[in-house]
Amino acid sequence: MRTIHDIHGGVHPPERKELSQPGRLSDAPLPAHLVLPLRQHLGVPAAPCVVVGDTVLGGQQIAEAQGPMSVPVHAPTSGSIVAIESRPIAHASGLEDHCIVLETDGQDQWVTCVGTADWRAEHPVTLVERVKDAGIAGMGGAGFPTAVKLAPRPTRNIETLLINGTECEPYITADDTLMQCHADELVEGAQILAHIVSADAVLIGIEDNKPDAITRIAAAIERSGADIELATFPTKYPSGGEKQIIEILTGQQVPSGGIPADIGLVCVNPGTAVAAKRAIVDGKPLTHRIVTLTGESLSTPQNVTACLGTPITWLMAHAGLSAAPQQRIIHGGPMMGFAVSDLEAPITKITNCLLAPTVTELPLPEPAKPCIRCGHCAEACPASLLPQQLYWYARAKDQEQLAEHRLFDCIECGACAYVCPSQIPLVQYYRAAKGQIRDSEQEKRRSDNSRERFEARQARLEAGAAAREAKRAARKAAAADKAAEGGFDPIQAAIERAKARKTEQDQGADREPAQ
Amino acid sequence: MSLLKVTSPHVAGQSRVSSVMRDVLLATIPGVVVLTAYFGPGTLVNIVFGGLIAVACEYAVTAWRGRDPRVAISDLSILVTSTLLCIALPPYAPWWLIVIGVLTAVLLGKQVFGGLGYNPFNPAMVGYVVLLISFPVQMSAWAPPRGLTDVPGLGETLRHLFAPGTIDAVTAATPLDLLRQNTGLLFDDLMSSRAELGGWGGVGWVQANIAFLVGGIWLLYRKTFTWHAPLAMLGALSLCALIGYDGGSSESGGSALFHLFSGATMFAAFFIITDPVSSAVSNRGRLIFGALIGALVYLIRVLGNYPDAVAFAVLILNFCAPFIDHYTQPKVYGTRNKDV
Amino acid sequence: MVALLTDQPLLAALSALLGLGAVFGALLGFAAIRFRVEGNPISEQINALLPQTQCGQCGYPGCRPYSEAIADGDTINKCPPGGEETIQALADLLDVEPQPLDAEHGTEKEPVVAWIREAECIGCTKCIQACPVDAILGAAKVMHTVIADECTGCDLCIEPCPVDCIDLIPRKSGIGFWHWPLPEDRAPRFDVIATDGTARDAA
Question: What is the pTM of this model?
């Protein structure tokens, strides 16, 4: 039996999981248009490899990865490309980004998918290529390119592949539903990923508020005959953070500034594992995902498998949204999700939930009061930070102290803001401070670079001027030497040449009067 | 339909500033009841009177500063400050003492720094210390407990408050006073020599301390604060008292029980040093904060000029709190094997 | 002598203090010469904080001359590209009070880079000679182009261009440069986007 450890802090917000009926999955209807952002992952956006007017089939690559930190995009269904332009996307800023707009033809014709059932015979490097070509990015919410995560690290062995089935945020049941409905695919996917990273063990961690998922996964493991460990642990938010689940299941902490591979672990979302299995075994790229549609403003909250690029408004209509005059639609969960500013924005690889609460269900936030320094935030913080001090330093824009108090170790889980009696939006301060620090560092690099270029240019100009000066001095010295020898004086000779030419011209002019 | 743009988290816990403050006020009830039972309605009348002054002052100042005064009053923090101050003051103090004390606490202790959350010092203790230093006579005029003399009724209390010159003040020394003034008597003999000492801690004082302890334990149960600061203070105070007990000689600093249940010890441990705004931030810091206050309280009581030392000890440690904070940062996740 | 001093305590005190003063003064003077640091290192530190646009808006021909002027006592609020952040950093370094940006020297604008409209460029190289960081690629009669990553937005190339074909475009726009803003004090925590859910209809 594995020892289950505990993380520091954590909170217990009301779970509300049963609202979206986890375990029941249906397909979302196909919308008329799909809007596919070129960046649905962390890193460099993909570049389109189709043009407006092209007809595409389902599964066809429509945007190519640009370098290692990039992920390609595939058409979820057949149709034609009607636009490649800036469109509103689901982002906290409310800004637009480049998207490929696909008009669906309803035929859902697909390219021929070629997979390999005997993946054990394949070299891990080939399998990683296939994972990248299938457009797989972390589907838990961060969108980290999975191929990069799986790339072997020369310095450290991977001991365990961990499937993070925690889904600790309230309301979200997408992973729970996936684990119940696609348990066998998940188990095979886990084995494939373990083979790729040459892990010695496979561990699936599930929170104890998902008894059905636990049963189904246990049965699937049994059926597969694989040596996979299933570990369950008490429900607490934010146990599902990568660093937190590792601490809970292994007692070790991921070193600050490091990644789980530094302590021999690779941690993957269940959706990503299933996508990897489908890419390798079925040859299918990542084109659909399970999204939880929930909240009391919906008449039929549910989990659906939807095409990537489906507009949010389409899914909200499908779930029967009866909007209040002022409505919140939250992309993600109530603790870490952001409010969507345009319902035409599409769902992407990282959309795990769309939450449409009423004001009675989730009251609007109250105006913030001054901080009373009660310290509840520090007790709740899973990273053992001092959120209070981070708050004061973020307000003061004191970058040195923020670094000393380890601002970048904050996982932005929101537990501190949840417990704050003064209702201060603490996480927004930290996000803003992180953004400012990154910005200043970039500006510093730029200005250091400019200074070097400026000084190089100054040096070049001075060197050029000095060289010219030296040449002039050398010529002058040479002329002086020549004159001193009593011989040829070039300046005098030049003056005489000029005089001679002038007299010639005058004589010429005399002979030929003006014409 | 318009879309609302809100920042995460979109769900909030239950605790609010006003509920924390309300819990503190409720927790003072046992102590106030006991004080009234033993010393008469003086403290209660002071609390009401002081509370009115405090609310009026806070309302006026917040409005003058351009903030919403109703928001400032509604979080109940100023009522907590005035209540704690008035509990600490002598029960039959004249009205002007209370007014000066409360105004000092509100203005100098809180508003001048920016209001709630910005004061580096405990506002009630600021008010108390200003009064103690400016009006030492009035501040040492404590009442004798019931049983020794009749305690005043409500009417007489109000006359003490508003017309202080017209009534003969009946004052008595506190147990801590008596300890300081002791010359020659062994500690145990001292405790049984005077009726008001009741054998070991002082009639009325012991019961009041127990009542405040009960209130404090309730607040711990409600998770209003953590156990670190109170336990550290009481522990340090007991330890110092044990060391200084000196076998109970006439030079004795008093027994541990005496120190724990006399004076304002329990009141301080659970209501004064736990003021979050002016104390240390981390739990380790609070241990140090509480322990140093306990040690200082003992030292000032035994070696200093003033009989009770809580206010000075608290203010000194308020000065030190940022320094303690700097050196007691918790070990952040992922830094176990690194030098922070 | 000693008798004189003991008889006149005032004289003794005066001579003692004068003697000590002379000794320590000599020591300090010697140290000031013997351990003198060459150059003025504070101006290096100041230069490190300036944004290096080399635009001249501060009135000095570049960032290094301004940093040397500040080291000699000039005010720190003359740099518009650096803006408030630079003024604050300089105030922290020099332990002086930060002042608001001197409007005489310009206002803080968003960062820009130059962009040449190639259709109109005549290849005269005047902008190339003007650029303080060699951010323009080109030669006589050959197309000129600005290397955006190297351009500081100093706008020294705008004037010399005889056909006025250089624009200044914002450098930090778009989703790649967005970050969360700091919440404002006492502001409501939400605002309403008054659309019917589709920004494109409103546009």
Answer: 0.85
